[in-house]
Amino acid sequence: MHIIIAKDKQDLGKKAAETVGMLLKKSPKANICLPTGNTPLPLYKELRNTFTNAEFTYIALDEYLGLDKHDPHCFSNWLAREILDPLDIPAKKRLLIDPSAAEADSEAKRHEKKITEQGGIDIAVLGLGHNGHIGFNEPGSAFKSPTRKVKLADRTRKANAAYWGGDINKVPHSAITLGLDILSSARQTILLVSGKDKADILQKSLAGPVAEDIPATYLQNMENVVVIADEDAASKLTQSR
Ligand code: GLP
What we know:
The structure is a single chain. The protein is about 35% helix and about 15% strand. By secondary structure, it is α/β, with parallel strands linked by helices. The protein has a single domain, classed as Rossmann fold (3-Layer(aba) Sandwich), CATH 3.40.50. The strands form two sheets. Strands 1-10-9-6-2-3-5 form a seven-stranded parallel beta sheet. A three-stranded antiparallel beta sheet has the order 4-8-7. Bound molecules: 2-amino-2-deoxy-6-O-phosphono-alpha-D-glucopyranose.
């Protein structure tokens, strides 16, 4: 595991853009999974300003359930605004999850099958939840879990309320997430973490016991992982290294 420490959130964006840019230079047509959240925003800003000729295929990491696909809160629309539209990624190169799917389990299976048919995940860019979740794989998710419908933890809904005007009552209760099984098969994983509030969970994720109650610990068993953290998030990590 390679750990890169950035000075602050902006520097994290720069360093992440360098890493992602380098990988995409080597494999321009890579299948890349990208996260929502505040952490990757500086990365998307950098890529918008510096990246040209994007040819990658975007793979949805997770998506709320129970929303119309035009709802601006959908993760696919969030990513569209932040990165996919500005980089002109065509619709056929966006592997999305339908947030209005009536049969969530079959929608999850369809998404996973499509990724496999497409050749799997080349690059998984991920964020980290305060409870150690990856995508929406909440604590207790099996390391072999498939892409599936999940119930969101209260803590996750509270954190996500920020994206819903601060009103937790508006935050959906369920979602579809890529499972840890297919995420573990990614050829390259990049974990982005910023902020003091993530210092504890980052330390536990990278240096604590590997256990399903902290889903992000699956990364310890993987090769080709780059962690890019700002000094605040890495503060407890550096003490223990
Ligand atoms: C959400 C997403 C995750 C993301 C996490 C962290 O729950 N499903 O994929 O990593 O938030 O978000 P933030 O970067 O805003 O802390």
